[in-house]
Design brief:
Pfam families: DAO (PF01266)
CATH class of the largest domain: Alpha Beta
Number of domains: 3
Number of strands: 19
CATH architecture of the largest domain: 3-Layer(bba) Sandwich
Keywords: FAD, Flavoprotein, Oxidoreductase
Family: Belongs to the FAD-dependent glycerol-3-phosphate dehydrogenase family.
Protein name: Glycerol-3-phosphate dehydrogenase
GO molecular function, one term: glycerol-3-phosphate dehydrogenase (quinone) activity
Bound molecules: flavin-adenine dinucleotide
Distance between the termini: 10 Å
Strand content: 25-35%
Number of helices: 8
Length: 354
């Protein structure tokens, strides 16, 4: 089959790889450069998404945990296992028994994982590992496993696999319209395919709207920002934002500390950048847990991306992380989708082709 793919983020690239490997003639159209948008602005985690258990997203978490292990095994040079700590303090929103139960379930959903299970660590062990961790009220913490990746380089690695399998990847190709008969319009040209896959991430609905096709789903486009701090990170953490139920990450990243993220609704066409309010919010959250607080001058850089979430709740923090596929004639639309689950999503798209 001749397949046109709109979008060169990780979901489009995985579709190109899987479909070219299956023997299809694949052309992928990306208006910028490959993996230059959401797929390189992630928290760099290959993870099941521990917090999605609170939203009962068991199917998604199980799939993501399986995919996490698969990425770690498939591309060890661009990924690595990561041991995160979730400290429990007096007055934490989540008590020890709840976190313990959640991690027991997380490990159970991971099945026969290549990574070690969760483990309780004492205050002494935690402070030995990270002497700058705030000790006041600390009761101990759970260490648990996930994976870390270089999202941009790993996406480009996928692009290379797609090319080796025969896919044509066209950068700087802005698709102005698609239709349900397999056509893709770029500038004054029209390209014909047996199937077109719309994997435009946060812009998938915009493309449908500008093509006059009623979108079957709404997307909630929610910005997430990160800070890269000029400090080495001795330990990866999943932490509660003080006085909130929200969680945020503190992660080692290229010899520095990555802190993220936020959840701010915005339109897909608005500039995607970390605001001053988000910067202050993340810095305050980080400083709450350290005995050596940092200020704005210690920020090396910031970056932001928008999550293409299926619209499911008035509060974006409660929005589902599930993805959905929709078929209209020769057109297949992809809505949502995590980085970690991109290859599983591509296999589902392959099933939809027939
Ligand atoms: C702050 C943040 C943190 C995250 N952290 C994680 C994490 O740690 N782990 C994880 O698994 N997931 C994470 N995610 C989710 C994950 O990054 C995204 O779900 C994933 O990258 C989406 O990939 P995509 O290919 O669908 O979208 P994108 O990467 O945005 O790709 C879509 C592409 O389509 C192109 N495009 C759109 N319209 C057109 C058009 N008309 N013509 C041509 N090209 C077009 C765009 O230019 C873009 O390159 C995070 C997301 C955010 C925002």
């Amino acid at each position: 089959m001749r397949i046109g793919i709109v979008g060169g983020g990780i979901n489009g690239l995985c579709c190109a790889w899987v479909l070219a490997q299956a023997g299809h003639e694949v052309d992928l159209y990306e208006r910028n450069t490959l993996a230059s948008q959401t797929s390189r602005a992630s928290s760099k985690l290959l993870h099941g998404g521990l917090r999605y258990l609170e939203q009962y997203e068991f199917r998604l978490v199980r799939e993501a945990l399986k995919e996490r292990d698969a990425w770690l095994q498939r591309v060890p040079e661009l990924t690595s296992p990561l041991r995160l700590v979730l400290p429990i303090y007096q007055g934490s929103q989540r008590q020890r028994w709840l976190v313990g139960a959640g991690l027991f379930l997380y490990d159970h959903l991971a099945g026969k994982s290549i990574l070690p299970p969760a483990q309780w660590l004492t205050v002494e062990t935690l402070l030995q590992r990270d002497p700058q961790l705030k000790a006041k009220g600390l009761l101990g913490g759970y260490a648990f496993s996930d994976g870390q990746m270089d999202d941009h380089r790993l996406a480009l690695w996928v692009a290379e696999q797609a090319r080796l399998a025969g896919a044509n990847l066209h950068e700087h190709s802005d698709v102005s319209a698609i239709d349900t008969q397999g056509h893709v319009h770029i500038a004054d040209s029209r390209y014909s395919h047996d199937r077109v896959i719309n994997v435009g991430g946060p812009w998938a609905v915009t493309l449908l709207e500008q093509s006059g096709i009623p979108p079957p789903y709404r997307l909630d486009t929610v910005r997430g920002s990160h800070l890269v701090l000029e400090r080495e990170c001795p330990q990866a953490y999943l932490l509660e934002v003080p006085d909130e139920r929200r969680i945020f990450f503190v992660l080692p990243w290229q010899g520095k500390t990555l802190v993220g993220t936020t959840e701010v609704r915005q339109q897909a066409h608005e500039p995607i950048e970390c605001s001053v309010a988000e910067r202050d919010y993340l810095l305050a959250a980080y400083n709450h847990y350290t005995t050596a607080p940092l200020s704005a001058v210690n920020i090396n850089s910031t970056f932001a991306g928008i999550r293409p979430l299926l619209y499911s709740a008035a509060d974006p923090r409660k929005a589902t992380r599930e993805y959905a596929l929709d078929r209209q004639g020769q057109l297949i639309n992809v809505f949502g989708g995590k980085w970690t689950t991109s290859l599983a999503l591509a296999h589902k798209v392959q099933q939809q082709l027939l």
